[in-house]
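#onboarding

Welcome to the new folks! Below is a worked example of what a typical request in this channel looks like: someone posts a single protein sequence, and someone else replies with the predicted structure as tokens. Don't worry about understanding the tokens yet, we'll cover that in week two.

Example request:
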Amino acid sequence: MKFMDKKKAKQLMDDGLAYQDKGNMFEAEKNYLAATKICPSFGEAHLRYGDLLGQTDRPNAAVTEYTLAFENQPEFAEAMTALGDLYSKNNEGEKAIEAYTKAVNCKKMYIFAYINLGTHLMNNGQFGEAQDTFKKALEKTTDPDLRKQIEKYYRG
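Example response:
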């Protein structure tokens, strides 16, 4: 992949985000598609396109994009967290837990994966596992606002 292709793909993705922020989903989608065509391994473009697809009630297509994001960048925890969020929204609890678990197992720490996994485990009646997850989240962040959010659930 040439540097210029990645740069062009990044610009297209940024333009897509701007269109999406303005509510122009058609133009946003065109930009995300172009970005993923120019640079198919650009995980963040697949993530953003997946977000748009999820917002426009195309969950199956969103699953594909989140999966592509993670396959192309295996340490991209945000992609698996977004997939877990989508599954959770669609009441697919086991799939959500599986996606969040993949996210927390990434080397690159993403605290929201821990929070979402813990919450989902708790809602699923898996209280011991939820508490372990919240404890790990507390160990991994120093942000006072996030710690306060986690401490609402953690009973250590």
